[in-house]
Amino acid sequence: MNHSQDTGSRGMPEDRKLYIVDSINDLNKLNLYPAGSQHLFPLQEKIPDVGTNSGNGSHSLFFMGLIIILIVSLALVSFVIFLIVQTGNKMDDVSRRLTAEGKDIDDLKKINSMIVKRLNQLDAKQN
User: One Pfam family this chain carries (predicted)?
Assistant: First the structure.
């Protein structure tokens, strides 16, 4: 084994070694290609972030759940509005019937009072 190569890189972490290799590759590309024709990736694109890709899935899942909840809420609100309108229509029908029956009751009272008066007149004539 070549012990001299290991001593120079023994103290460096693995990520740092990869960064140095990428930097050397970028310098070689600059020397090979004319200026402006080669796009070098910034440091943030070279170092992978752990957990950022899994976050995108949870965000999309969150938004899908939110959309489903909003759709269900809209359906429930529409159903409640429908029930309120139907209940209002039924109440209007009931109040119309009550007013019509009230008028019928008033007419029956008038007829009853006329009958009582007529019976009283007939009773007075007989005595």
Answer: DUF4577
Contact 65, 33 (CB under 8 A): no
Give the pLDDT of residue 100: 86
CB 19 within 8 A of CB 48: no
Four-CA torsion 22, 26, 48, 11, nearest 10 degrees:
30
Maximum alpha-carbon separation in the chain: 149
- Burial bucket for residue 26 (CB in 10 Å: 0-12, 13-18, 19+): middle
Give the integer Cα–Cα distance in Å for 62 and 69: 10
Give the integer Cα–Cα distance in Å for 26 and 18.
12
- Cβ neighbours of residue 29 closer than 8 Å, sequence gap 6 or more: 38, 40
**Of the candidates 21, 27, 22, the residue with the CA atom closest to the CA atom of residue 43:** 22
Query: ∠89-93-97 over CA atoms, to 5°?
Result: 170
